[in-house]
Amino acid sequence: MRIVCTLLLMGSLQVMRANTIIGAPLISREVTDTFSGYLFAYNADFIDNSTIASWSFYAGSLNGGNVIGHEITPVIMDQTDPNDWVITAVGTTRTVLATGINSFSFGVVSGVNFLGPKRAFGWYDGSATSQNQGTISFDRATTAIGVRDFTLPQFPTLNMTYQTKNNFTGANDGTDWSGGRIYSYNLSWKRLPNHPHFCCLQVGLP
After folding, report:
1. Which of 41, 66, 85, 118 is deepest in the core (most CB within 10 A)?
2. Would you say the C-alpha torsion 8, 12, 13, 19 has a positive or negative sign?
3. Which residues contact 98 (CB under 8 A, 6 or more apart)?
4. Are 14 and 117 a contacting pair, CB within 8 Å?
5. In angstroms, rounded to a whole number, what is the distance separating the alpha carbons of residues 103 and 143?
6. Distance between CA atoms of 90 and 107, rounded to whole angstroms?
7. Is the CA virtual torsion 109, 43, 190, 195 positive or negative?
8. Which residues of the chain have pLDDT under 50?
9. CA 144 to CA 184: how far, in whole Å?
């Protein structure tokens, strides 16, 4: 008798899922942020281990100024410590060339394109060399899961930590700026396959 060990890719035994899209409809909303160089993050994390296939947003708003030429940089953050959100990946800075829907790949510059429990998606209004006002359209609205900004208006780098300044979640009657917000952005994400497993079989000699 002999023992044969083989590597089984369990994910290959399953039907691959199509990319999943989460987020809000990409429509023109009330305003864009007026502060420059701020970092924002979506409060929710991801149950499944996954990667960002692409991200999209609506640039400009019903009452905002010109956003053409604005730069915006995607990030992934670890929220294990609620007091210190940590940058785990920085994507490619993109330049807005037109008002309306813009879509890009994440384009990892540093870190790892990985989403999972305690990982959140975010964006920085600017680039490593310049800052600008907000680009993504948003409404003041009551939300169960909102977004937050951070106290450090500085370009994110790998392993940098941020502390929350405002958590824009919950009730909002449209009369102030501290309550819930809905931003016109979404993510297309792809679940990672299961980890491979080794299987040993006992077989007869030929």
Report:
1. 85
2. positive
3. 59, 68
4. no
5. 24
6. 8
7. positive
8. 1-17, 195-206
9. 16
Predicted pLDDT at 46: 80
What's 196's DSSP letter?
Answer: P
Tokens 């009730």 correspond to: 171
- What's the Cα-to-Cα distance from 96 to each of 57, 92, 110, rounded to whole Å? 10, 13, 22
pLDDT value of position 75: 97
Residue 200 pLDDT? 37
Indicate the length of the chain as a whole number.
206
The reported pLDDT for the residue numbered 65 is 84
Q: Name the nearest CA neighbour of 43 among 178, 131, 170.
A: 170
* Ordered domains of the chain (ranges, CATH): 20-194 (2.60.120)
Cβ burial, residue 23 (10 Å; 0-12/13-18/19+): middle
Q: In whole angstroms, what is the distance from residue 84 CA to residue 150 CA?
A: 10
CA distance to 9, 31, 62, 67, 68, per residue, from 71 (Å): 40, 17, 20, 9, 9
| DSSP 8-class letter at 192 | P
Which candidate, 150, 155, 163, places its Cα nearest to that of 33? 150
- Please check whether residue 186 is in contact with residue 22, taking contact to mean a CB–CB distance below 8 angstroms: yes
Tokens encoding 19: 């990319």
Q: What is the pLDDT of residue 194?
A: 55
The helix or strand, by DSSP H or E, that contains position 185, with its residue range, turns out to be strand 185-191
